[in-house]
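Support reply, case 0932

Customer input (verbatim):
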Amino acid sequence: MSGNASKETPAKPKGGKQRIHALDELRGFAVFCMVFYHGFYSIGYFFGWDWGIWLVNFFRPVEPLFAGLFILISGICSNLSHSNIERGAKLFFISYAVTVVTYFAVGSQSAIRFGILHMLSIAMMLFGVTAVVLRFVPLWVGIPLNVLLFLFTLSVSSGSVGIPYVWSLSLPAEWYQTDFLYPLGLHPKNFSSSDYFPLMPWLFLFFTGGFLGRLAAQKKFPKGMYKKHIGFFAVMGRHALLIYLVHQPVIFGLCQLMALLLPSR
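Our regenerated output:
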């Protein structure tokens, strides 16, 4: 992708700071995967095409990987923002607007009660509030500690904590009988959210990115990450929130058109 800057010198945005184009591209790739996954989910579960359900089940094992990549990059980029509390507060209201819209659009059982935007909004605000303290935690402590906490809480929604495939401890069943702890990953069996990313474990992945982001703020990422590689993904990455907000209505519209043209399932 060409620009005014030379091939040897990456383009610099206003303020003299180098943009880390690889972060835009990786985030764009994650958004690209998310759009297709949600498309297959809508085709299969909302419109009843069997091939959509098959594709969802096929890609389900890797869905947490591109979602995790998006969350990790969001944590990294929090080091490049001067207003995480403000950004998080704005995203918080946007996320609950999504909850209201999906509640009326697809019903309470399929509404997004605590999706990736809800989680990111709270993570941003927590990162902003704790930034003064976290700066005293060295990278060699913060990164492995948060990775460990992520792995330790990975199965909270399933009723346990521990290290996957090594050791686990069941949590009290009473913790899962409330209707208000679902943001933490503690929810009753009848809880539903078509997009669900509780704070445990995902908050710790965000904070892992937060610690890695110090290297970005100090311009210590590998030089190749400051160069442009795939413009399509870079554009998607820079407009990730807008794409997230509009992709589902677009998908539903396309599915309605498919239902009219291809009534046979």
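We compared this against your earlier run and they match. Two observations from our side: Strands lie at 160-163, 167-170. Residues 1-15 have pLDDT under 50 and may be disordered. Please reopen the case if you see a mismatch on your end.
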